[in-house]
Each structure stands twice: as C-alpha cells, then as structure tokens.
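hey so i finally got around to running the thing on that chain from the lab meeting. sorry it took forever, my laptop kept dying and i had to restart like 3 times. anyway pasting the input first so we r on the same page abt which one it is
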Amino acid sequence: MSENQKQLDLDSVKPMQSSGLDINLDEFHGKQVNIEGVEVMQVPSKFTPLIEGTDQHQKQWALKVYSEVVTSAGEGEERIDFRASELFNLIQDKQGNLVGFPTNENSNLMQFAKDLRIKEPDKKSSLKELISEIKEKQASIKAYEKNGRTYLKFKY
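ok and heres what got predicted. didnt touch it at all, straight out
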C-alpha cells in the first residue's frame, strides 16, 4: 500500500453531488426535432483499404445529419450544446473517391430517408437532391446508452 492509501479513512469519504453536467438526455427520447444540417465529410475508419505504402486506412466518406440543439449546459466558451446526430456511410471507390450513396432498401440511409417520408429516396438523381429533402424534415430522437454514457441519434 502507498503512503496515501494507509492514511485514507474510507469511512470519512461521503457521497456528494459532483460538479459534472446534470443533464438527463433520456428525457429527449422520442422527441420530434428539426434537422438543422446535413453535410458530407470524411471520418476515420478501420474498414477502408490501407493507404498504399502505409499502415493507415483511407478515411470513409459519410453523410452527417444533425438536429437543432435540444439542450445546453454552461455559458459562453464553456457552453456545451446537445443535439441528435448520425453518420451514414457513402460509397467510395478503391482510391477513396466519393462516387455514390447507398440505395439498398436495407441501408441505414434509405431506412432513415423512408422514415422521414421522403418519396422514393433511392430514385434521387444526386446526393445533393437527397440532402435538400432531408434538410426540410423533422425526425424523432433516440436516446441510447453506450459505455455508460447516453447519446442522441435518430430513430428509424
């Protein structure tokens, strides 16, 4: 035992309210929210091919959809905004170039689009057209637990 452990009287350690965030994100489960933004981005992935001559993977193209802010904690520079968000993988070629979006009815993106009541999302002429329709919609929030933390995404 270290010197600090020998001197520590565990009977004297009492329960206290922590100074951490006191926000219950579960209360937003099922809430309808406006979709605030949709953007195309690249994210790290361990499932994409390796970059030639390295041990690093290509980044994965994804469509990020996020809601309006549902609650905030703190103020000024310390402010933290909470919103639902979701990443949908897009289709890229072996060189990592963005070439399309999935239209399989079982893909998460198509299930989400159908839940938003977008008519024939698999028949859109371009990703730009699909994005413009997603931006105009409302979606339901799903609160879920992962590794002891609560996250917000969309129900679909």
